[in-house]
């Protein structure tokens, strides 16, 4: 009988993390250090040691399972910081379309975690192909779409897969909100309307915050306690700069509108998609803003994509902008994330930078670099053994470990 995707590998009970030593591989730590040949020692779901074979020969536990990676490449698990995995399910049609609540253009109270099916085929594709962590969240129909969540791609109960919840507040500029709501004869039907709704929501959140602060300063009289508003509550971490607003913005003018509003309200944003970010790279650099670039492996399916270019990551790199790469799954199937990086390399991005854009940079941008993105002691044991250089089309993820457990191939 073939192993179910959700079963643990043979020899480990549920929740058990046996010692594993991946030896003799070309180990890319994600920090710029490469060990060739190198060893990665895993125990308790964490990375215990990383180094050269000779240096760690005496550190391998006697009862460790040995994975011989001779002639292969070992990397951190890849990270996609912008997807709709689990809420835009594959193969089941409209029943799986849970990513856009197109009844109200401002819905910060929505939580992606409430709509994710962990048995989505896309999540299985991610895990089996070396993408071990993703951000998934609402789509771009709404001006403010709701909270995204960072999750591991292997698991059975979504709550156990969470890395960061919430991981951001989705917002959108450009053509999507105005297209959706112009059909309903309601605001926004223009870019001005989108920006106005964004400002309105943030001002209402400020007023809500001030109301609660006055109540608390006034002695917390139960008779005067303000009524809770879930939408406004969801925006408070954004106002406190604890939660970034992840802003869908393709065109350069939309990117600048997002920046303008962020500066007005002193909030943290990341530029998501960043299709024309190459046109305003100096503006991003001088503000120390970060970008998530993609999906680039598509046709110019709408006006906003007219000037898309695989050179955008290179231009951002040369300008000193920190960036990551994304598939926007299901726009590009999640397993093609390394090919997106390969196309950026073809357009001039250094290979090591492309790998970093799927590992440590991505982890940093989504706020989990203390746990993920590099092979360092103490971090989660998310490790991939590749048949060759992962940016080459013929390379395969031959062994994938998430939290120290190997993902079954079937």
Characterize the structure shown.
This protein has 410 residues and is of the alpha/beta class. The chain has helices spanning 53-56, 121-128, 158-161, 175-182, 191-217, 230-239, 252-265, 281-286, 312-319, 337-346, 351-357, 360-365, and strands at 20-28, 34-43, 46-52, 65-68, 73-76, 78-83, 131-136, 144-152, 162-172, 245-249, 269-273, 290-293, 323-325, 383-386, 397-402, 405-406. It has 2 domains: 1-77 and 373-410, Urease, subunit C, domain 1 (Roll), CATH 2.30.40; 78-372, Metal-dependent hydrolases (TIM Barrel, Alpha-Beta Barrel), CATH 3.20.20.140. The chain is built from 12 helices and 16 strands. Helix 9 links the parallel strand 12 and strand 13 (323-325). Helix 5 (191-217) crosses helix 6 and helix 10 runs antiparallel to helix 11. The protein is globular and about 65 Å long. The N and C termini lie close together (11 Å).
Based on Cα principal axes, name the global outline. Answer: globular
Count of alpha and pi helical runs? 12
Q: What fraction strand?
A: 15-25%
Q: Which fold name corresponds to the CATH topology of the largest domain?
A: TIM Barrel
Number of strands: 16
- As a whole number of angstroms, the C-alpha radius of gyration is 22 Å
Estimate nothing, just give the exact number of structural domains. 2
Task: Give the SSE map.
Layout: E1 20-28, E2 34-43, E3 46-52, H1 53-56, E4 65-68, E5 73-76, E6 78-83, H2 121-128, E7 131-136, E8 144-152, H3 158-161, E9 162-172, H4 175-182, H5 191-217, H6 230-239, E10 245-249, H7 252-265, E11 269-273, H8 281-286, E12 290-293, H9 312-319, E13 323-325, H10 337-346, H11 351-357, H12 360-365, E14 383-386, E15 397-402, E16 405-406
């Amino acid at each position: 009988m073939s192993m179910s995707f959700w079963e643990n590998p043979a020899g480990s009970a549920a929740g058990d993390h046996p010692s594993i030593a991946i030896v003799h591989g070309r180990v890319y730590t994600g920090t710029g250090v490469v060990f060739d040949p190198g060893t990665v020692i895993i125990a308790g779901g964490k990375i215990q040691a990383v180094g050269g074979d000779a240096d760690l020969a005496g550190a391998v536990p006697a009862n460790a399972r040995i994975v011989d990676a001779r002639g292969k490449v070992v990397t951190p698990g890849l990270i996609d910081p912008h997807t709709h995995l689990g809420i835009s399910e594959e193969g089941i049609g409209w029943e799986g379309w849970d990513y856009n609540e197109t009844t109200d253009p401002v819905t910060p109270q929505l939580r992606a975690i409430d709509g994710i099916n962990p048995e989505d085929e896309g999540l299985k594709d991610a895990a089996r192909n070396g993408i071990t962590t993703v951000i998934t969240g609402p789509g771009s129909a709404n001006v403010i779409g709701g909270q995204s969540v960072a999750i591991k791609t292997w698991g059975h109960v979504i709550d156990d897969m969470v890395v960061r919840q919430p991981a951001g507040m989705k917002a959108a500029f450009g053509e999507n909100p105005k297209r959706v709501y112009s059909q309903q004869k309601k605001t926004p039907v223009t870019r001005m309307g989108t920006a106005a709704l964004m400002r309105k929501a943030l001002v209402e959140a400020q007023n809500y915050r001030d109301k609660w602060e006055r109540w608390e300063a006034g002695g917390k009289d139960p008779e005067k306690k303000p009524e809770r508003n879930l939408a406004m509550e969801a925006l408070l971490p954004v106002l406190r700069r604890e939660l970034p607003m992840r802003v869908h913005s393709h065109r350069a003018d939309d990117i600048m509108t997002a920046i303008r509003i962020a500066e007005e309200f002193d909030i943290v944003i990341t530029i998501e998609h960043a299709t024309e970010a190459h046109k305003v790279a100096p503006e991003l650099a001088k503000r120390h803003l970060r970008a998530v670039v993609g999906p680039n492996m598509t046709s110019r399916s709408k006006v906003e994509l007219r000037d898309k270019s695989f050179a955008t990551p290179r231009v951002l790199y040369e300008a000193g902008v920190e960036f990551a790469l994304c598939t926007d799954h299901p726009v590009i199937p999640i397993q093609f994330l390394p090919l997106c990086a390969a196309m950026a390399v073809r357009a001039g991005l250094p290979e090591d930078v492309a790998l970093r854009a799927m590992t440590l940079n991505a982890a940093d941008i989504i706020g989990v670099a203390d746990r993920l993105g590099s092979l360092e002691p103490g971090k989660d044991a998310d490790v991939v053994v590749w048949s060759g250089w992962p940016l080459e089309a013929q390379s395969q993820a031959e062994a994938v470990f998430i939290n120290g457990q190997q993902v079954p191939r079937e």
